[in-house]
């Protein structure tokens, strides 16, 4: 077995005694007598009896090589993809919209998680001891919760933004500004840093013995009840409550879309139909991102709660490997969002190609005749070429060329 459950408590993976995973770690001249308090409330110790003979290194299992490789692939895809998302929104003015600012915040959270947390999680599988010191023990676990909280709260903000854009398209314009999106994103990070402080306080190094002296990175709470309360708090704050906001937003969106709308006449009908279609596409894209996050983290949270509240829960090799797969699934979520944007976000896909024309074998600058726009009478009767994003466009603006329309922000 790997050192996964002995080495740290990265989102609940350090919650099992070594002897539960390795029933027999003895040699003919060496016997183990496991003793000590629950690792959530006190130091883990394995006392020895008999002759203190040398013991060989434990068999960490195939996951000691497979999981770090999988994590490396996740990091490579996730960092490159999310960096591309940030670059495209920064580079092209038409991509700077309220919705895309939230998407950038989501990409920043994913990159921070992949860079600062995943490499240390990979090392847990390949070693039997925490080798990075007390500061990194606290920082890695603290920052892991910070980034997960920031991700889930940003998804909730994205979903609520879609609700405002579709259900209250006019009255919400005063609230759906780029400045307010930046302020909300900053508040999300501030709240995530503050809400994760208990991890920085209670995460610590613990000395133990398993095939020799070991150092573990674990959370030590004053009581078992405190540990259980914090786990419930973590799941509620980083999973249940934000996803309830997202689910409620999309239920209200579906109810609104099912109601027949008053059909405008003339050019307004074409314009509003186009805007409504764009908003629906973006709503579907954001809903897909929320659903993937929900499914990716659900198994990990369920296993953590089960192990913490059911002290008789067995830790068999099968459960161990289920836990490993659940952890890989949750980490992989940080790399899938750019893929979703590429398949479902028409504007992102077109601007990905425009940003790297050699990779996609297209011209970086579209021909002049491909930039034609339809002039639509504005409020004053003057003809205007539409250049606003779908959520910001008024009834007098609309892009009709394929290139220009594709470059609009799906906001």
UniProtKB/TrEMBL annotation:
Signal sequence region: none
Stored PROSITE patterns: G_PROTEIN_RECEP_F1_1, G_PROTEIN_RECEP_F1_2
InterPro entries assigned to the protein according to its UniProt record, in alphabetical order: Galanin_rcpt, GPCR_Rhodpsn, GPCR_Rhodpsn_7TM
Cell membrane keyword on record: yes
Record's bilayer topology term: Multi-pass membrane protein
GO molecular function: G protein-coupled receptor activity
Record-annotated membrane-spanning stretches: 65-90, 102-127, 139-160, 181-202, 230-255, 282-299, 319-344
Keyword field: Cell membrane, Disulfide bond, G-protein coupled receptor, Glycoprotein, Membrane, Receptor, Transducer, Transmembrane, Transmembrane helix
SUPFAM superfamilies: Family A G protein-coupled receptor-like
Family stated for the protein in its record: Belongs to the G-protein coupled receptor 1 family.
Name of the protein in its database record: G-protein coupled receptor 54-like
Gene name for this UniProt entry: LOC109478653
């Amino acid at each position: 077995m790997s050192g996964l459950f002995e080495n740290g408590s990265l989102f609940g993976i350090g919650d099992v005694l070594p002897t539960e995973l390795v029933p027999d770690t003895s040699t003919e001249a060496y016997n183990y007598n496991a003793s000590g308090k629950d690792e959530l409330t006190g130091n883990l110790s394995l006392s020895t009896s008999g002759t203190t003979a040398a013991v060989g290194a434990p068999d960490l299992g195939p996951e000691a090589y497979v999981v770090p490789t999988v994590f490396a692939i996740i990091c490579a895809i996730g960092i490159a993809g999310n960096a591309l998302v940030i670059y495209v929104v920064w580079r092209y003015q038409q991509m700077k919209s309220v919705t895309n600012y939230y998407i950038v915040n989501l990409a920043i959270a994913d990159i921070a998680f992949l860079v600062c947390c995943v490499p240390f999680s990979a090392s847990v599988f390949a070693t039997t001891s925490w080798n990075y010191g007390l500061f990194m023990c606290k920082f890695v676990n603290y920052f892991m919760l910070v980034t997960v909280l920031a991700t889930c709260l940003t998804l909730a903000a994205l979903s609520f933004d879609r609700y405002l854009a579709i259900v209250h398209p006019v009255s919400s314009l005063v609230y759906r500004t780029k400045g307010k999106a930046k302020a909300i994103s900053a508040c999300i990070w501030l709240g995530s840093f503050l809400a994760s402080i208990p991890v920085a306080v209670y995460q610590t190094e613990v000395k133990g013995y398993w095939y020799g002296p070991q150092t573990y990175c674990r959370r030590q709470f004053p009581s078992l009840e405190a540990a259980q309360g914090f786990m419930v708090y973590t799941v509620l704050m980083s999973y249940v409550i934000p996803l309830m906001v997202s689910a409620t937003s999309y239920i209200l969106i579906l109810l609104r879309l099912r109601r027949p709308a008053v059909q405008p006449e003339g050019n307004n009908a074409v314009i509003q139909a186009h805007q409504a279609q764009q908003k629906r596409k973006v709503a579907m894209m954001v809903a897909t991102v929320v659903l993937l996050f929900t499914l990716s983290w659900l198994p990990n949270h369920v296993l953590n709660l089960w192990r913490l509240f059911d002290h008789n829960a067995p830790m068999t090799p099968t459960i161990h490997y289920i836990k490993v797969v659940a952890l890989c699934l949750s980490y992989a979520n940080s790399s899938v969002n750019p893929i979703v944007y590429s398949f479902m976000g028409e504007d992102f896909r077109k601007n990905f190609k425009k940003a790297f024309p050699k990779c996609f074998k297209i011209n970086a600058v579209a021909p002049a005749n491909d930039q034609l726009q339809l002039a639509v009478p504005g409020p004053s009767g003057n003809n205007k070429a539409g250049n606003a994003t779908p959520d910001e466009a008024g009834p007098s603006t609309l892009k009709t060329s394929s290139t220009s329309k594709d470059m609009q922000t799906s906001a």
